[in-house]
Design a protein that fits this description.
By secondary structure, the protein is α+β, with helices and mostly antiparallel strands. The chain contains two helices and 13 strands, in the order ααβββββββββββββ.
Length: about 200
């Protein structure tokens, strides 16, 4: 529970920074775009303009980090995030990068065009040109992947393709998880796995 409480504290602290910055951004638009005031002229922004401007506000280059229950270090970065107006506690992100540092020393990096993170469920959904690379030599591509931050778990709901130490592969599903007892990480491919084996090159 200590790791989960730690993650909750990190998310709460992050949102305490994000939300005031969003409010400051909304206020700053009034001053940045204002010029010489002419009281005889109509207000230059319509209600639709103001709504759209508020909707587009966000925070650039945010990041947070924490420790999963198994001791793995997790970090999450994005070019820009903004609150989801339809779901409390959820933020939307663009150009996302998540990094998982496993107990054995391996590093898993996940990048995507877009993502959404739920601070209540400690989870994220990454979609759009998702790439999963590992320091052990795997390079996997897929459309979307879900990740759980308080426990080491990442899963693709659909097809994956890529390469790894054994060769080129494709599968209907990929799962990254860890053992509860010792935190050992496992990368599993299931649902119609196809592997084109590439034998290791021999030294002449």
């Amino acid at each position: 529970m200590a790791a989960r409480d730690n993650f909750h504290s990190v998310f709460v602290a992050w949102m305490k920074i994000v939300l005031p910055l969003l409010a400051l951004g909304l206020l700053s638009t009034v001053f940045l775009f204002s010029r010489k005031v002419d009281l005889d002229q109509p207000v230059p922004f319509s209600q639709v303009d103001l709504t759209q401007r508020a909707h587009d506000q966000g925070v650039t280059n945010p990041n947070f980090a924490g420790v999963a229950t198994g001791g793995e270090h997790v970090s999450f970065k994005a070019d820009k995030v903004r609150p989801d107006p339809d779901h409390e506690g959820r933020v939307l992100a663009d150009t996302v990068r998540a990094e998982l540092r496993l107990n054995g020393g391996a590093v898993v990096t996940i990048t995507s065009d877009h993502g959404e993170s739920d601070q209540i469920e400690y989870s994220a959904l990454l979609n759009g040109n998702v790439q999963v690379t590992t320091s052990t030599g795997y390079d996997i591509r897929t459309d979307r992947i879900t990740a759980q931050f308080d426990t080491l778990r990442a899963e693709t709901p659909g097809r994956v393709t890529g390469t790894g130490p054994p060769g080129a592969l494709e599968a209907g599903r990929m799962l990254l998880t860890s053992e509860e007892e010792d935190g050992t990480a496992h990368l599993l491919f299931t649902d119609g796995v196809k592997l084109v084996y590439t034998p290791p090159k021999t030294k002449e």
